[in-house]
Amino acid sequence: MLPASLRLRALPGLVIQVAGPEVFVARGSLSRAPAQGLLAEHLRVLGAFARQRSLEEVCEALDDVLSPDEVEALAADLLEQGLLLVEGTDFGVESGFGRIDAHVPMIADQARVFAYAAAIARLAPGRRVAELGCGSGVLTTLSARAGATSVWACDETDIIEVARQVVADNGVADRVTLVRGSSRDLSPPAPVDLLVHEIFGVDPFDEGVLEALADARDRWLAPGGQLLPDRLRIVACGVGGPRWRDGAEQLENVQVVLDRLGLRMDPILEGARRLSQHATGGTQVPELTEVIVPKGLILDLDLAGPMATEATWQVRLSTSREGQVDALLVWMEIPMGAGEVLSTGPFDRRTSWGWLQYDLPGPVRVGPEHPLELVLARGTQDGLDRMEIREVRPG
Questions:
Q1: Domain residue ranges of the chain, discontinuous segments joined by +
Q2: At what angle do helices 110-123 and 138-145 cross, to 10 degrees?
Q3: What is the pTM of this model?
Q4: Residues 189, 219: contact at Cβ < 8 Å?
Q5: 182/187 Cα distance (integer angstroms)
Q6: Of 45, 247, 370, 388, which is the most exposed, with the fewest CB atoms less than 10 Å away?
Q7: Does 98-228 match 7-86 at the fold level?
Q8: Top-level class of domain 98-228
């Protein structure tokens, strides 16, 4: 039983998504899995705790729609799912990016670490630095060693205790301040000159980078301050061949089964359609003969400017070859300054991210006079941001 005097508040920056009829998904942390199966009553209680209030105050505020027992049960559920925070407690995440195992591949990623190290060595000396999501502390430590006058960094998970040890073991603790909590709740003691961040996912949007970075950038940076990195490019190529069509073949097989048996199973068929268009992590590097549409730019984001992207946008990718496209490979190119670009694509040094593979529902014929046209969107799925490919057609 929760005490009536218990003071709670909703986590800042909650993202709510409709998952079905009167069922919702909520994400309140970049490091925690989204909370599934929320009902309208959960949202009422969350809304009532938009500012810090006692459980008793919320019971009174909602007494026309929910009983005190119902409010208490819903609040307990939201607490368990990490969507409410108790007054006076630290916000933290023990799973996901809080596990040291999740950070080992990032440190082993030489392309990633060395690209950031070179950029930090060039930009950090003599500047006040902040890092958004410091993880195990490697970039924070590199910033201090490069000659930053001070480094302030935050992380919302248990991994910050590893960062504290790393900072101390490397002799830079006197210039580093580490704070555990959500970046939306925190800010450095004074504006900084350089904001370092690396919260990109395999899908560039799925760690909520745009909203989190815009919030930190606007509150933390001094006038004339700089982001590292300050730009993100998303590129794609089109490949052909049967091995790229696992999702599409699954849809075809489902359709064959239903047709031959004369069955109607619309939910299964719709699920197969969704899966056929769902991006999976790429592992197979294509042969050059399989690349029908060469690399082309599909989105160029200025992270120092307005973060909003269009709900949908259209892209045309040209090719000099006649051929059949069965899948799209999508990856990031992150300019790091001084002409250096960190690429996560299949034709570059392998990174901890890798690339995305979108199997097409069916082959698309392209050629010099028929470029590949894409309709893309920034959407959400299971509470996570996603880049969606809504339509693929020959031009």
A1: 7-86, 98-228, 232-394
A2: 30
A3: 0.80
A4: no
A5: 10
A6: 370
A7: no
A8: alpha beta
Question: What percentage of the chain reaches a pLDDT higher than 90?
Answer: 52
Token duo for residue 55: 């459980």
In this prediction, what percent of the chain has a pLDDT beyond 70?
91
Q: Across the beta sheet with 84-86, what order do the strands follow?
A: 53-54, 7-10, 84-86
Rounded to an integer, what distance in angstroms lies between the CA atom of residue 216 and that of residue 156? 14
Contacts of 266 by beta carbon, 8 Å cutoff, 6+ apart? none
Enter the tokens of residue 19: 């998952």
CATH fold of 232-394 reads: Hnrnp arginine n-methyltransferase1 (2.70.160)
Q: How far, in Å, CA of 348 to CA of 246, rounded? A: 24
Q: Which residue's entry shows tokens 């700089």?
A: 226
Cβ partners under 8 Å of residue 77, min gap 6? 42
Which pLDDT score is estimated for 34? 81
CB 28 within 8 A of CB 13: yes
- Domain 7-86 classified CATH 1.20.1250.20? no
Instruction: Enter the tokens of residue 25.
Output: 């998904």
Q: Which two tokens stand for residue 341?
A: 């670009």
Measure the CA angle with vertex 33, ends 180 and 73; round to 5°.
90
Mean pLDDT, the chain, whole residue set: 88
Per-residue pLDDT tens over the stretch 242-284: 888 777 777 888 888 889 988 888 877 877 777 676 677 777 8
What's the Rg (C-alpha) of the chain? 24
